[in-house]
């Protein structure tokens, strides 16, 4: 699944002040975009919040979604809908401001794109409203940097030699991160993955990663399988459009990573089952002679508390079944909330052992920094 946490749920906001609730979510996402290096989206969302409060076209687009909770990412769905208009040539005036479509963003005039954005929403309301029914799914491949690091750390800690890997991913979206071992991760003194990979994750680490790359053999995967309630087919035009639309148009490095991952997916198919995480895990067992891995990245916020309790029960079952001959590991890159703040941390739990925090990173996975290995929540 995708992206970064939006504003926390506000009890009662949906029924008492739905529009004010939506405005607050949009404003919080604007701040997040500014912090994460998208001045274009930060400026646009500031204007969307004003238009929403004033009952303009953005209010019409979001009608019925004002009370959606923070994890529904209303602001990101709106941005994705409009970006799709740009990428399909239906909003040429706005395309002139979107670097992803060959346009130019002028940081000296951050609001210059707003009139064209507002006009695009007004002109294609049915399209925009249809996109608002979809979950935001970027399938950010930069997060593979953390997942691979967690897997290398687990294999190095096994002590009994490397195991082939059976990989199961929760919230896979298009399944691109099931191909993480085909990506190239690079940082000073560290590299892992094929040198000729079309996906290169540069500046992957600030300082040494939790497991050095020296001597790390290529990973041997015997299974790759994911799940998602609404999986995306990355080989279809509609699927590729959805993935590109949810990227931020003034971040070309992310677009380049996605393009490379789509090329890999075209020649190395992966399978993503259309089902929820708990149902999926019920069919997973450990296996002799292989390391069974369940991993996921920035998807937990989209799963209800009730289902996540079931997921944790299945993870505990797998951990309890783990043996030296049939080991199990749970690897996660997810936000950890402390008050109103979020940090994004890599945690690893091997077998029946406690979960450990190995690293923290920016929400899109790059760069990452090793931490002191304290216990996970």
Write the layout of secondary structure elements.
Elements: H1 13-16, H2 18-35, H3 39-54, H4 57-62, H5 74-87, H6 92-95, H7 114-123, H8 125-131, H9 144-158, E1 165-169, E2 184-187, E3 190-192, E4 200-201, E5 221-228, H10 237-245, H11 252-267, E6 271-274, H12 277-282, E7 291-297, H13 305-321, E8 328-338, E9 341-350, E10 356-361, E11 368-370
Helix pairs in contact: 2-3, 5-8, 5-10
Q: What would you note in describing this structure?
A:
- The chain has 377 residues and is α/β, with parallel strands linked by helices.
- The protein has helices spanning 13-16, 18-35, 39-54, 57-62, 74-87, 92-95, 114-123, 125-131, 144-158, 237-245, 252-267, 277-282, 305-321; strands spanning 165-169, 184-187, 190-192, 200-201, 221-228, 271-274, 291-297, 328-338, 341-350, 356-361, 368-370.
- Helix 2 (18-35) packs antiparallel against helix 3 (39-54) and helix 5 (74-87) packs across helix 10.
- The protein is globular, with a radius of gyration of 21 Å.
- The model is unreliable at 2-16 (pLDDT under 50).
